[in-house]
Amino acid sequence: MKLAVDQATGLLDAFGEPDEEGFQAAIERIDDRILATAGAFFEHMNANGATIKVVSGGHEFSFGAEAIARAAERARVTSVDEGEDLILGRLSGVLPDAHQFEFVPADGRTAIRGKVDPSWPTEQLPDLNNNGSELMLKP
Question: How many domains does the chain have?
């Protein structure tokens, strides 16, 4: 839970950060749904003149009116380009009950974790574990 809160507060902080490079680095790997949700949040705050202070563990940041307006504008004009890639690698494992997987790309990139399609029957997922097969992942 702490990791999720830290990631969420880090993303919120990046939206209001004056440094454009810091913002771009933070959103490099997020999908459109997260971007749209953050945009709706900041737009609602901006439209209502709200400010916010976030304290998470040892991290604290405040969003004044200027940071809220900047975050709303960034969310409005930023889009995430999605495309299809084929990635060669190895399936590390599947958590059947959670319908989650971990895939290690052969090119040395960090592991990819995600959800298994819910239409795939839970009872078939354990068969994928310990297979050691090389696979192509289509993110």
Answer: 2
